[in-house]
Amino acid sequence: MRAFERLCPQGPGWALDWAAVRAEFGWLERLAGVAQDPVHHGEGDVLTHTRMAAQALVDLPQWRALPRGRQVLLFAAVLLHDVAKPDCTRREGERVTAHGHSRRGELLARRILWRAGAPIAWREHVAALVRHHQVPFWALERPDLERIALRVSLTASNEDLALLATADIRGRVCADAEAVVEHIGLFREYCADLGVLDGPWRFGSDHARFMYFRTPGRDPRYDAYDDTRLTVTVLSGLPGAGKDTWVAAHRPDVPVVSLDALRAELGVGPTGDQRAVAAAAYERARGHLRAGRAFVWNATNVSRRHREICVGLAAAYRARIELVSLEAPPDVLRARNGRRQARVPEAVLDRLVSKWETPDATEAHTLHLLDTNDRALHVIEA
Question: Taking the alpha carbons of 8, 75, 45, 181 in that order, is the dihedral positive or negative?
Answer without folding.
Answer: negative
